[in-house]
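Example record

The entry below shows one chain as it appears in the dataset: sequence first, then structure tokens.
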Amino acid sequence: MEEKEQGEREMEPRERAEPLSEAERGMILDTWARVYENCEDVGVSILIRFFVNFPSAKQYFSQFRDMDDPEEMERSTQLRKHAGRVMNAINTVLENLHDPDKVSSVLGLVGKAHALKHKVEPMYFKILSGVILEVLSEDYPDCFTAEVQRAWTKLMGLLYWHVTGAYAEVGWVQLSSSAV
């Protein structure tokens, strides 16, 4: 019961996320250009860390639900494909940062698919955002200055705001983990 109440608080009306400034968009796009050169490897690193540190997230992936070994995960073609989809979705958002309607549309589709088709708890988007920031700052320490990290943190907040907005739009009702 307590878990359900926590989820309901997440879906309450929210303040609009603060938009990125031109300078923040520039910093994000500059660092993303470096990250995206190695998008497959970075995406795989992000998902492996996500699943190792938050194994409950694997429940939504029948193909690698039972994998515990990071090396086995790294070899999984299904995990690699999903990592590619995650990185490409981020890339699409970043290519369209100048167009808030397009960003909203892309993230709305992601949110609705994860809410309706995959039944993924929205909290996993917040957790994944933190993992993304952690991996990027570790893998690219020279360009992830404190200022750049603040811009990326703000971006991840915006992404989460749009995705959870899609959940609210479709009338998301949190399932207890025992119902999944």
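Notes for this example: The two ends are 15 Å apart (CA to CA). Residues 1-12 have pLDDT under 50 and may be disordered.
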